[in-house]
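In response to the reviewer comment on reproducibility (Comment 2.3), we provide here a single inverse folding case reported in full, input and output, so that an independent group could reproduce the run without further information from us. The structure tokens appear first.
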């Protein structure tokens, strides 16, 4: 079989392509891709880090490795916890993302907790079902209706959206604004930011109290007495959803048995984990099995911990991403090593990293294929090949295809695995975790998913059988502990973020240009200052009738303000209850017209 390649981006769909980079005509890829997939071959030649750099001076990769080894050795002598490695899902490959951890675990360095995106919901669903694994693409096809809860899939998951459309499903969108998805759905329910748990309590209350329960949920009686204490009019007041709409949604669940698709963004809001957990129980209450989808990555049985070497070594200190800026400001690190991530823009308080590097308090090492905003300010930059240029094994958090990626372009730079092993050698570290052949590690890790590397190399694509299925009888416990959002005063609004069709987070500006920092609001045009308790940024306000009063929307691909300051400098260091996920959505901001 000819070589294949899966898009390794942080995206639900994980498109699979042939070696001419044409999307495969198989379910659920169905021969089409998104604007980013169409631009990959062009993008691959632009804005690349083509050499290594130390303090802005071009050097060979070998020189950079020696320099990094020296930096790490010196830092180790002081305190390993003063080395921080930080990473996220710029490339979801098992070798690219997971394996490099081994070096830092062996060093006993500090790590960020990878809580920025989906971890809150994974944990919130797991406590009820034993796993966060939910419906597969094939399962989705069996439904006649769908509730897209904080999930603007027409933008964030084009293949999931296409599946729902093709199946002719009745679609209900729950969002804080009329997103593209909400506009294209049959019904849009507009909820106030951070109050989905109150809406879900209303739905659960109606289902229980109107005798609409058809499924089995353990400790249902506890849930029943819990919802009794709330009146529908209170739940309606807090959530902004009319009592009639709450009742309608409960009856819709009962009558149409929709699948519920829960967006990650909800986990990054007030009450996010509680909301996701409770929403995931609604399908079970109306008798559906695997009636929700959030992320299936925990269902495959891939041993991510083995790849990271956690069976032998682990980092000494875990830094919540929510407190990234705080830790840096307190002077907790001497050296920061970042790969697969653009933390100056995407992590809360990324501006503190810029300052610390500028003032020489932190030495920043970045391994990236592109001149990201973080690479641009780094003391040491090392070029990485893109996913089109290296071998890897790629899984999806939606469908169950495991793909053996084979390069279709000549590599530029050094792979993540080669780099961390070379640094270890240069440091004189001999540890079995770094000596194990990386492909043996992959083979061990995917055996848990019932796949062997030799089978995968031969067939290129193997369908995994989910190992960890959700319980058919989930537990209603733990019960939520919802908090009402702070009310708005004059001139205040809740700030929310969403994905943009042309970008993946901060990526693709080399193809589609920089996205202006625009704050979409209901009724104001002009340059404005957005001020939170934590700082302020200057952005352009643009009127949008799809945004209700009291809401400001910024695309999460325009995270630099008009003066070059990261938007995330105004994010407060607040952590989610289940997995410490930073609260990015729904923070209160004051709007002021900017002078001049
Ligand atoms: N095109 C594209 N696709 C992407 C990405 C991308 O950058 N571009 N990013 C990928 C990544 S990293 C992720 S995490 C996923 C994210 O994908 P999703 O989880 O689908 O979320 P977002 O696109 O971030 O949009 C969040 C939605 O939630 C709404 N919202 C905000 N606060 C609340 C609230 O309190 N309640 C409710 N009900 N709604 C709320 C916003 O208005 C917005 O419509 O998408 C992935 N797919
Ligand atoms: N204010 C606000 N902040 C947010 C969000 C929000 O909604 N609002 N969303 C959050 C979410 S959901 C997420 S997931 C995070 C995303 O945060 P990041 O993961 O930092 O996002 P990206 O912009 O995708 O940056 C990924 C980096 O990985 C690099 N990369 C790509 N491929 C490779 C590779 O093969 N090897 C290496 N070494 N590097 C590679 C890219 O060039 C890029 O610099 O942002 C979060 N930040
Ligand atoms: S970003 Fe998503 S939809 Fe686009 S090519 Fe990659 S996997 Fe497919
Ligand atoms: Mo994400």
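Designed residues, in position order:
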């Amino acid at each position: 079989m000819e070589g294949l390649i899966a898009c390794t981006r942080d995206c639900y769909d994980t498109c699979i392509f042939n070696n001419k980079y044409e999307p495969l005509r198989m379910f659920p890829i169905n021969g089409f891709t998104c604007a980013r997939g169409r631009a990959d071959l062009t993008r691959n030649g632009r804005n690349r880090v083509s050499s290594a750099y130390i303090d802005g001076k071009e050097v060979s990769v070998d020189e950079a490795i020696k320099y990094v080894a020296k930096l790490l050795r010196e830092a180790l002598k002081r305190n390993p916890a003063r080395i921080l490695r930080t990473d996220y899902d710029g490339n979801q490959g098992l070798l690219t993302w997971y394996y490099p951890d081994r070096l830092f675990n062996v060093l006993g360095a500090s790590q960020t907790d990878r809580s920025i995106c989906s971890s809150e919901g994974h944990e919130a669903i797991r406590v009820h079902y034993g796993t966060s694994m939910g419906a597969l693409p094939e399962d989705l096809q069996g439904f006649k209706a769908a509730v897209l809860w904080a999930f603007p899939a027409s933008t964030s998951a084009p293949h999931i959206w296409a599946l729902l459309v093709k199946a002719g499903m009745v679609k209900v969108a729950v969002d804080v604004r009329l997103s593209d998805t909400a506009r294209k759905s049959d019904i849009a329910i507009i909820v106030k930011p951070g109050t989905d748990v109150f809406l879900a309590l209303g739905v659960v209350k109606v289902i229980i109290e109107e005798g609409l329960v058809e499924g089995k949920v353990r400790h249902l009686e506890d849930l029943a007495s819990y919802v009794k204490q709330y009146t529908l009019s209170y739940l309606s007041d807090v959530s902004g959803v009319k009592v009639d709409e709450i009742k309608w949604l409960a009856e819709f669940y009962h009558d149409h048995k929709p699948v519920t698709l829960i967006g990650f963004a909800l986990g990054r809001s007030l009450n996010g984990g509680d909301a996701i957990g409770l929403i995931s129980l609604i399908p079970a209450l109306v008798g559906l099995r695997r009636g929700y989808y959030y992320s299936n990555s925990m269902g495959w049985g891939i041993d991510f911990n083995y790849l990271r070497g956690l069976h032998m070594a682990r980092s000494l200190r875990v830094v919540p991403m929510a407190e990234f800026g705080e830790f840096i400001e307190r002077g907790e690190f001497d050296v920061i090593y970042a790969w697969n991530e653009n933390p100056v823009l995407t992590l809360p308080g990324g501006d503190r990293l810029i300052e610390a590097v500028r003032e020489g308090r932190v030495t920043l090492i970045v391994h990236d294929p592109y001149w990201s905003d973080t690479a641009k300010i780094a003391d040491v930059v090392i070029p990485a090949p893109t996913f089109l240029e290296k071998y890897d094994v790629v899984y999806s958090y939606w469908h169950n295809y495991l793909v053996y990626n084979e390069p279709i372009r000549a590599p530029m730079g050094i792979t993540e695995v080669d780099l961390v092993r070379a640094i270890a050698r240069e440091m004189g570290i001999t540890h079995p975790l770094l000596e194990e052949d990386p492909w043996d590690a992959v083979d061990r890790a995917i055996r848990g998913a019932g796949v062997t590397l030799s089978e995968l190399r031969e067939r290129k694509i193997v369908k995994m059988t989910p190992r960890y299925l959700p319980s058919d009888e989930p537990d209603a416990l733990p019960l939520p502990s919802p908090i009402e959002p702070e009310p708005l005063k004059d001139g205040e609004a809740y700030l929310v973020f969403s994905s943009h069709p042309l970008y993946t987070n901060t990526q693709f500006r080399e193809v589609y240009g920089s996205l202006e920092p625009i704050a979409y609001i209901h009724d104001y045009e002009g340059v404005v200052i957005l001020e939170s308790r934590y700082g302020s940024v200057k952005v352009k306000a643009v009127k949008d009738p799809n945004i209700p009063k009291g809401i400001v929307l910024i695309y999460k691909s325009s995270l630099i303000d008009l003066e070059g300051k990261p938007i995330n400098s105004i994010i407060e260091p607040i952590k989610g209850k289940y997995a410490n996920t930073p609260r990015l959505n729904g923070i209160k901001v004051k709007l002021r017209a900017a002078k001049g």
